[in-house]
């Protein structure tokens, strides 16, 4: 069977020959447009477009010291929460004319550290989403890389985080309005900064409302961890369960239903993240929504801005959260 061989890519020499200029002039037209006559530059760009020529990014990196490539690392690429982050980051990168490299750290601090070390020379900076690195590890990484943290915050490094203090108070207020006096928090990975913030917020808000809240776990933030977490909820005799994320919450609901526990009549269940699927599971999941696409875009914009600064001023952003009330919460059975 005959196959069509790909056409040879146009080179800078091809563009120079067709334009009637030196290769160095073509190079300047792309990298230093101010040093080329406007008419000549437009002519060169037109020829380049007709020939399908694009500058070699590695060659440009050698000349400028910038690769125009950014890296986004996430703990679990299969977790729907990160779909919004990735989409927002990709949108901001495309708007800037740069390229995004995506890495999955597999919920492992060691894997994350290795990726940062390996990709560091090839990218202009990193957005680390829900980083599992310890604080000291992040500070070491920031010494040699431009970093923005997403869903994680430590002093001295730019970050984009959700307002968990307000969000967890919304959760407790909602449960209290239904007469719940006790709840359990099904915790996620011990390394999760957002998990700690959620627990701290729930505990503070519960104290103000004279509610009892107990932390159980940790559990992996996945559907498969739902059965073990649900069994712990049953043993606790609490009337409400607040889960580390929606994936865990959906797994908990499935197990409760299997064991004949009604949701929300016997136990109310709340998640975090408002992922795709939270509004199509049965019952529909009450969850704290974050603006993940905005967070991804904001983190990339901050990273680009940091890379352009001569003296880096560290700034952090806190994005709002809101409780989406659906069918998985209701009046306490003890009311």
Secondary-structure map:
Layout: H1 12-19, H2 23-31, H3 38-51, H4 57-64, E1 69-74, H5 81-96, E2 99-104, H6 109-119, E3 126-129, H7 135-144, E4 147-150, E5 158-162, H8 164-177, E6 182-186, H9 193-208, E7 212-216, H10 226-236, E8 240-243, H11 246-258, E9 268-273, E10 286-290, H12 292-308, E11 316-319, E12 321-324
Parallel strand pairs: 1-2, 1-3, 3-4, 4-5, 5-11, 6-7, 6-8, 8-9, 9-10
Antiparallel strand pairs: 10-12
Helix pairs in contact: 1-2, 1-3, 5-12, 8-9, 10-11
Give an overview in words:
The structure is a single chain. Helix 5 runs parallel beside helix 12 (292-308), helix 8 crosses helix 9 and helix 10 crosses helix 11 (246-258). With 335 residues, the protein is an alpha/beta fold. Strands 2-1-3-4-5-11 form a 6-stranded parallel β-sheet, with helices on both faces. The radius of gyration is 25 Å and the shape is elongated. 44% of the residues lie in helices and 17% in strands. It has helices at residues 12-19, 23-31, 38-51, 57-64, 81-96, 109-119, 135-144, 164-177, 193-208, 226-236, 246-258, 292-308, and strands at residues 69-74, 99-104, 126-129, 147-150, 158-162, 182-186, 212-216, 240-243, 268-273, 286-290, 316-319, 321-324. The protein is built from 12 helices and 12 strands. The model has no long low-confidence stretch (mean pLDDT 92). It has 3 domains: 12-55, 434 Repressor (Amino-terminal Domain) (Orthogonal Bundle), CATH 1.10.260; 69-162 and 293-321, Rossmann fold (3-Layer(aba) Sandwich); 165-291, Response regulator (Rossmann fold). GO terms for molecular function: DNA-binding transcription factor activity; transcription cis-regulatory region binding. InterPro entries: HTH_LacI (IPR000843), LacI/GalR-like_sensor (IPR046335), Lambda_DNA-bd_dom_sf (IPR010982), Peripla_BP_I (IPR028082). Keywords: DNA-binding, Transcription, Transcription regulation.
């Amino acid at each position: 069977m005959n196959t069509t061989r790909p056409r040879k890519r146009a080179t800078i020499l091809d563009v120079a020959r067709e334009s009637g200029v030196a290769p160095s002039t073509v190079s300047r037209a792309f990298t230093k447009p101010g040093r080329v006559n406007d008419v000549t530059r437009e002519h060169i760009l037109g020829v380049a477009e007709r020939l399908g020529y694009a500058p070699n990014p590695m060659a440009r990196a050698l000349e400028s010291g910038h690769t125009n490539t950014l890296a986004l690392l996430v703990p679990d690429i299969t977790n729907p929460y990160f779909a919004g982050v990735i989409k927002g980051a990709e949108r901001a990168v495309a708007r800037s004319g740069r390229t995004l490299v995506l890495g999955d750290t597999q919920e492992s601090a060691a894997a994350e550290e290795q990726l940062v070390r390996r990709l560091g020379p090839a990218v202009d900076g990193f957005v680390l989403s829900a980083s599992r690195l310890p604080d000291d590890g992040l500070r070491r990484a920031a010494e040699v890389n431009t970093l923005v943290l997403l869903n994680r915050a430590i002093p001295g490094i730019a970050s984009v985080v959700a307002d968990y203090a307000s969000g967890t108070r919304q959760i407790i207020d909602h449960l209290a309005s239904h007469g719940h006096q006790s709840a359990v928090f099904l915790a996620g990975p011990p390394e999760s900064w957002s998990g700690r913030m959620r627990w701290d917020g729930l505990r503070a808000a519960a104290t103000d409302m004279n509610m009892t809240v107990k932390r159980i776990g940790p559990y992996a933030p996945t559907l498969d961890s739902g059965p073990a977490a649900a069994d712990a909820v049953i043993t606790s005799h609490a009337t409400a369960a607040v889960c580390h994320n929606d994936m865990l919450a959906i797994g908990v609901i499935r197990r409760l239903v299997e064991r004949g526990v009604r949701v929300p009549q016997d136990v109310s269940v709340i998640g975090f993240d408002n992922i795709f699927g939270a509004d199509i599971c049965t019952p529909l999941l009450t969850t704290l929504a974050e603006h993940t696409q905005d967070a991804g875009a904001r983190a990339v914009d901050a990273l680009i801005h940091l890379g352009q600064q001569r003296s880096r001023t560290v700034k952090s952003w806190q994005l709002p959260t809101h409780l989406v009330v659906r069918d998985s919460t209701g009046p306490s059975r003890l009311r």
